[in-house]
Amino acid sequence: MSARILDGKVIALEVTEALRPRIAQLARPPGLAVVLVGDDPASAVYVRNKTRRAGELGMVQRQITLPATTSEADLLALVDALNADDAIDGILVQLPLPAGLDKDRVLDRIAPEKDVDGFHPINTGKLWQRRPALVPCTPAGVVELLRRTGVALRGVDAIVVGRSNIVGKPMVALLEQQDCTVTLAHSRTRDLAGAVGRADVVVAAVGVLELVKGAWIKPGAIVIDVGMNKRPDGKLGGDVEFGPATERAGWITPVPGGVGPMTIAMLLANTVGAAERASR
């Protein structure tokens, strides 16, 4: 068996292009503000990719870069100002923040209706209650990738490896909404190999290079690799041992080029959705 590749770049382009008619129907273009604190090179690349794609779609995109020495009070004041700005529908504070800034306090300050990252406790609570909410972008992108396989998810066994608030836990909620039977595992799970081997859907999001071995994959399973890790040679690799996994899986995402582009696409979709709700 040779797994079919889920090309996140192609699917992300389709998702974002489908936003154009929705944007055209709005009285004003959706506005996205991305706040970058400090000079982390990887964060700067992520922010540039997000704002560039927003601009290509005709959205108002505002990148605000602050020095690493910015005080928490000043950062909170900026968030307050963006909350009050009617031209801005989505606010994203790029993580990680420099030492000395309380991530939770800053993210909680974003108005829930503008929280396009889907991290606010109110949006998190609504997600688990199956109520309409802004959903974290990476898990939402994973669901879209799963949908593109055409495989019926109702009743299948799924495993999420990784228990972060950003990916792992919301991923469990979204898979449960698809009527999957979901196991939440992590790096300390006993018999992780056995748990993965029983799953029809594997979402690896633990941040450990090739933790999930290809030989563990159930034949025909869908494998979504959220990991983005540096190899000793400086190249990027995922949480799944890609080569051997492709010999067993039915579908698999590459790293890079799989989940990453989908995260940006779903961020833009969240922003358009927030603008539509604001217009109503």
Question: What's the layout of helices and strands?
Answer:
Blueprint: E1 4-5, H1 8-17, H2 20-24, E2 31-37, H3 41-56, E3 60-66, H4 72-83, E4 90-93, H5 103-109, H6 121-128, H7 137-149, E5 157-161, H8 168-177, E6 181-185, H9 192-197, E7 201-204, E8 222-225, E9 229-230, E10 236-237, H10 242-246, E11 251-252, H11 259-279
Parallel strand pairs: 1-11, 2-3, 2-4, 5-6, 5-7, 7-8, 8-11
Antiparallel strand pairs: 9-10
Write a concise synopsis of the structure shown.
The chain has 280 residues and is an alpha/beta fold. Helix content is 40%, strand content 16%. It has a six-stranded parallel β-sheet. A three-stranded parallel β-sheet has the order 3-2-4, with helices on both faces.
Low-confidence stretches: none
Q: Which sequence of strands runs across the widest sheet?
A: 1-11-8-7-5-6
**CATH level 1 name of the largest domain:** Alpha Beta
Quote the distance from N terminus to C terminus: 50 Å
Work out the radius of gyration. Answer: 19 Å
CATH superfamily of the largest domain: NAD(P)-binding Rossmann-like Domain
